[in-house]
Amino acid sequence: MIKKTATAHWSGGLKDGKGLISTESGVLDAQPYGFNTRFEDKPGTNPEELIGAAHAGCFSMAFSMILGDYDAVAEDIDTKATVGLEEMDGGFAITKIHLDMTAKIPGLSESDFQKAATTAKENCPVSKVLAGAEITMDAKLIS
């Protein structure tokens, strides 16, 4: 089993508190986050942004792997994940994630492209862990 870690530190109340997020790799090292970066569009990171980054990265890698089943290799795969956080039942929930992907893959048919993209969306490990959210996708093959 592969294990990766991340840590969060929080001080204070919800609206006036401040937090720091770090990752094992050091890519994030005491990165500040708080209510204002999550709910008020202030500069800084937030959990939803990080989930989006993880989902976009995981999907792109899974898609690349699945292309091998079609004897295809992508020149480029670009994926954007939009994570929807909604207030519901007295709290908040991540209810939707939309993946926008464009890829340049010489020799791959549109049909096989769409099949591979759907398989990646349904089976990448991050999609599986987020199964409670509605995950949608627009996939565009470019030439």
Q: In a few lines, what is going on in this structure?
A:
With about 140 residues, this protein is α+β, with helices and mostly antiparallel strands. The chain has four helices and six strands. The strands form two sheets. A three-stranded antiparallel β-sheet has the order 1-2-3.
Determine the number of helices (DSSP H or I, runs of at least 4 residues): 4
Succession of helices and strands: EEEHHEEHHE
Largest sheet: 3 strands, antiparallel
What is the total tally of β strands? Answer: 6
CATH H-level homologous superfamily name of the largest domain: K homology (KH) domain
Please give the share of residues in helix.
25-40%
CATH domain fold name of the largest domain: GMP Synthetase, Chain A, domain 3
CATH architecture of the largest domain: 2-Layer Sandwich
Strand content: 35-45%
Q: Which structural class do you get from the secondary structure elements?
A: alpha+beta
How would you portray this structure in words?
The chain is α+β, with helices and mostly antiparallel strands and 143 residues long. The protein folds into 2 domains: 6-39, no CATH class; 47-142, GMP Synthetase, Chain A, domain 3 (2-Layer Sandwich). The chain contains 4 helices and 6 strands; from the N terminus they run E-E-E-H-H-E-E-H-H-E. The protein has helices at 35-39, 47-67, 110-123, 125-129, and strands at residues 6-11, 18-23, 31-33, 76-88, 91-104, 134-142. The chain has a 3-stranded antiparallel sheet. A hairpin with a 7-residue loop joins strand 2 and strand 3 (31-33). Helix 2 crosses helix 3 (110-123).
